[in-house]
Amino acid sequence: MGLEKLKKTKRPRIGLYSMGLRYYWDQFPGLRERLIGYGTFIEEKIAGFSEAEVFNYGLVDCPEEGAKAGEYFNANQVDLIFAHSATYVTSASILPLHQRCKAPVIILNLQPAVRINYPKTTTGEWLAHCGACPVPELTNAFARSGIGYRVINGLLGLERTPEISLADETTAGRPEAVKAWNQVEEWVTAAAVRAGIAGSRFGFLGNTYCGMLDMYSDFTMLQAQTGMHVEVLEMCDLDRMLRQVTADEAAAKQEEIREFFEISEDSPSDPIARKPTSEQMDWSARVACALDRLVKEYDLDALTYYYHGALGGEYEKLQSGFIVGLSLLTARGIPCSGEGDLKTCLAMKMCDIAGRGGSFCEIVVTDYEDGTILLGHDGPFHLAIAKGRPILRGMGLYHGKQGTGVSVEAKVRTGEITNLGCTQTADGRLKFIISEAESTDGPIMTIGNTQTPVRFKTDPDTYMDAWFAEAPTHHFAMSVGHNASLFEKAAYLMGVQKTVI
After folding, report:
1. How many other CB atoms are found less than 10 A from the CB of residue 216?
2. Cα gap 393→24, rounded to integer Å
């Protein structure tokens, strides 16, 4: 259940080079070409992840080449560099590269074969397998130079053995290769998250819910730490869009809404949750069209919003129609968070760029009988990760807010999930709080809210002890899959603190 994205996410720009020692090339014919072939294999694999653009410099085998490679990666504005440890190299050849180009570096220690052919191996053959040899030297030089790094160890994962090889290099199915390439893919996806956030445009419509002190953040701080731009919008901007919506546009939007949502009857339990009226459906469709126009005119990548308006005023009526249109936008790659929560909107956008969803949530209630915690909100919802068709209910009121309208009742599909919270420390630094869990198919309330029963790795009280100890905000983004390793990598690349519960 997905909708075509309104905007393409910025593709990550990945730098790649292989390393070696120039003296070897004349001493061991064929070694240089063999290592270049390994680098081409790595380039082609990486290019398949997150539609990455790969800039492969080739071999760095002396300090002069290291300096030139650094300038090459700077010129191509790479987000991340994979340093393929193909054979031994002096650290003096590599350090100039990373002193010039400050993009984060991941060292790839990927051995071509499970084991060398001991009886037949020559020195030249061994050198094609000794990628681990220079890694300690490199990490020592990086550490003493203040250059951060990470290392991936494993097998190269070739699907056939090169003619020059004396060993069996067909290792694609080996767990050491699968694990290593899963790590590479996560780093590329994390680079896509970082690149997608940097320079993205977050709309801030209205204001933050009055009194929610955990929500308030400094726009300059957010831009300084993530690169995101905050476009401050007014309700009159949206009202101007609303006046441009045609009857045909509203009718088409109603068809879209009926395709993706199930229209409820009256709730069997809650008198304020009723079958949506035709007037409510029409208004939600018109407001959804206006929101689409707003996103396009201001070239938004995400939107956070809240506005209560004066009792009975036009803007109160306008905000009452938000949830359906904002849920559709969220499913189309424009995450929308309620109550003016910009930090959780950031977390939702990270989840969405990674292709894992990202639905707006808070703690709803604990089910001690099932050992689960119900997580959700009164909207919006990420339709792409829903279990079945979400339900639309007409709301006689929005609890804690003004106005009436249509709300979304849904749950995230059953299986692995990861919550990504974004909070702010006392010294003004962002911090991600990450926790993996399982969503269940347990019961939910029929009150027009999104709700997903979630079972954590510990009992509910122990989990909440750990979660609350991290001083989170009361909102977070729910993603599908176990993504803690991915979000940790994104935090590292973004320079943001993180805690995994």
Report:
1. 15
2. 71
Q: What is the Cα–Cα distance from 282 to 49, expressed in whole angstroms? A: 41
- The sign of the CA dihedral 411, 333, 246, 339 is positive
| Least-confidence region, from 5-9, 117-121, 131-135, 236-240 | 5-9
pLDDT, tens digit, 9 for 90 and up, residues 395-436: 544 544 455 568 788 889 999 999 999 999 999 999 999 999
Across 396-441, the runs of DSSP E, i.e. the strands, are 405-409, 415-424, 430-439
Q: Give residue 361's Cα distance to chain centre.
A: 16
Q: How far is CA 296 from CA 6, 200, 308, 322, in A?
A: 8, 14, 24, 17
* Interatomic CA distance for residues 357 and 387, integer angstroms: 13
Token representation of residue 6: 């309104």
Report the alpha-carbon distance of residue 309 to residue 305 in Å, rounded. Answer: 13
CB contact set of 477 (below 8 Å; sequence gap of 6+)? 335, 344, 347, 348, 350, 351, 358, 359, 360, 361, 419, 420, 421, 422
Cβ atoms 157, 169 nearer than 8 A? no
Distance CA 254, CA 285 (A): 6
Token pair of 34 as six digits: 């063999």
Give the DSSP per-residue string, 300-369.
-SEEEEE---STT-HHHHHHTTHHHHHHHHHHTT--EESTT-HHHHHHHHHHHHTTSEEEEEEEEEEETT
Question: Tokens at residue 66, please?
Answer: 């290291």
3-state SS of 107-158? EEEEECCCCCCCCCCCHHHHHCCCCCCCHHHHHHHHHHCCCCCEEEEEECCC
- The identity of residue 176, as a single letter, is E
| Letter string b/e over residues 100-120, b meaning 16 or more CB atoms within 10 A of that residue's CB | bbebbbbbbbbbbbeebeeee
The model's pLDDT over 191-247, given as tens digits with 9 standing for 90+, comes to: 999 999 998 999 999 889 899 999 999 999 999 999 999 999 999 999 999 999 999
The helix (H) or strand (E) run that includes residue 478 is strand 476-480
Q: Which helix (H) or strand (E) holds 280?
A: helix 278-297
Would you state the pLDDT for residue 273? 64
In sequence order, what DSSP letters do the residues of 162-196 get, joined into one string? -TT-SS----TTSHHHHHHHHHHHHHHHHHHHHHH
Determine contact, residues 254/282, Cβ cutoff 8 Å.
yes
Q: Give the confidence band of 263 by pLDDT, cuts at 50, 70, 90.
A: confident
What is the rounded CA–CA span in Å between residue 60 and residue 368? Answer: 59
pTM of model > 0.90: yes
